[in-house]
Design goal:
Radius of gyration: 35 Å
Shape: rod-shaped
Largest sheet: none
Number of helices: 1
Helix content: over 70%
Order of helices and strands: H
Number of strands: 0
C-alpha cells in the first residue's frame, strides 16, 4: 500500500502545483483589478474636489466683487460728483 500511496502522491504533486500556481495567478489578477478600481475612484474623487473648489472660488470672487461694488456706491456722495 505504501508503494501505491507513493505513486498517487507523485502523480498528484504536479496537479497540486498547477492548482497553486493558478491560485497565485487569480490572486494577482484580483490585486490588479482592486488597484485599478481604487486608482480610478481616487482620481474621480480628486477631480470632483478640484471642481467644487474652483466653483466655490468663483462664487466667492463674485460675492466679493458685488460687496466691493456696494461699498463703493455707499461711499459715493449723493447726486454724483462733488
Amino acid at each position: 500500500m505504501k508503494a501505491v500511496d507513493s505513486i498517487i502522491e507523485r502523480a498528484t504533486a504536479p496537479s497540486r502545483r498547477r492548482k497553486f500556481i493558478r491560485s497565485l495567478e487569480e490572486t494577482a489578477a484580483r490585486a490588479v483589478v482592486t488597484a485599478t478600481v481604487t486608482f480610478a475612484v481616487g482620481w474621480v474623487l480628486k477631480k470632483m474636489f478640484e471642481k467644487s473648489v474652483a466653483e466655490a472660488a468663483e462664487e466667492g470672487a463674485k460675492a466679493g466683487a458685488a460687496e466691493a461694488d456696494a461699498s463703493a456706491q455707499d461711499a459715493a456722495p449723493p447726486g454724483g460728483s462733488a
